[in-house]
Amino acid sequence: MNLNSLLRALRELPPTGKDGFEGLLALTLARISGSPMRLAASGHQFGVDGQGEDCGEPVCFEAKRYSSNLSRELVLAKIADLGRRKTEAEILWVLGATVEVPNQLAQDLETDGAKHGIATLVLDWNDQEIPSLGVLLANGGDGIAVWIASRTKAKVSEEEIEKDLLRLRQSDAVKARWQSLRNEFRAREISGRQAIEANKSWLQATLSSATKARYRLGQPTAPCDPDKPFLHRKAALERISESLDKNTTCLVLGLEGVGKSWVAAGAALQFPGLAIALSAEQLEGVKSGDFESLIIEACTIQTENAPGNAERWKRRFLAWEASRPSAGFLVIIDGINQRPDLPWDKLLNAVESLVEDRGGKLLVTSRPQFYQRHVERGFNRKQRISVKDWMPDERNTILGQAKH
Fold first, then answer.
1. Which tens digit of pLDDT belongs to each residue from 59-94?
2. Which residues pair with residue 51 across a beta bridge?
3. Residues 6 or more apart whose Cβ sits within 8 Å of residue 255
4. To the nearest whole percent, how much of the chain has pLDDT over 70?
5. Using the 8-state DSSP alphabet, how is residue 330 labeled?
6. CB atoms < 10 A from the CB of 404, how many?
7. Is 279 helix (H, G, I), strand (E, B) or coil?
8. Within 271-332, where are the H helices?
9. Which domains does the chain have, with CATH numbers?
């Protein structure tokens, strides 16, 4: 595809400033991301030439208007600079370049970005393929050709630039590439959905195998095992759902063997957002100030490390205090009576405060006698779901399933 007029015009724009290549990227990225872009002041820019004003889901960019090879070391250093300064949950760092970015450099940028919890997107100019920078500009809205023509030093007319942009817009291959690029700007929405899907997959696999459940959760809770009988405690799950809609914390109380852990597992699977399961054993030796790290580690493990690593989960969890996750999240602490020596009133108050500040919910299971004697005085929560012993018809149903 011949796009020489557009490329010449781009390479002869001023490299910096609002009327240069930086300004063009800022204009185009603002239109596509829906967030106004501000150019960084001159001097040390901490890895960015400009960034969006949406603090919850920032898009940052580095603009390289070159006509020769990029400096590998200079570009890689930008990610490290940004990682030291940024704390937002979802950061998309865009490298816009008027030359080709070698595949190895693009991969290294992605790897280094992952270490800091930063997503990267390369928009470059490759003469052998559809140039991603050209795809972006072609879909940047009205007036792009006028903007470039009025600022470039190249002897290229507005009509010539518009023809190249139109050629890009009319290509079926470009349309497909554009759809892929657009998805990159929905980082928070996509990563949030992917995290929930990965979490439900992890829970389903764990709760389908007594062996996995014992290893991962501390006890063989496997209500999803297709080879074992299971009775869905629908009424209890409905009460839990109603309770969590109105309250931060829900207590699930019941005698030994009535199925509290199975009910908690069902609550995890039906919860619309992330559901993070913790056993009482996991809180042994954990101080109140360490719960944040414990929950972040559990989020990383129980989403199968997708869509990001522990560093990104740390950013995400910290950012939830200012911008809460739309689907919420649920922390389940199962069987507190199994570790009777722990100061559960203090521990649960600390976890509840941490979770509540970030828009989450807390579900705790216990034997009622233990809760009343050792916890209630310091952690008195009225929202309690009582799980009763199996009724005769329920027991007969389970036994009937086992025979088959």
1. 889 999 998 888 888 888 888 888 777 666 667 889
2. 38, 60
3. 367, 368, 389
4. 88
5. E
6. 5
7. strand
8. 291-301, 310-319
9. 4-185 (no CATH), 192-403 (3.40.50)
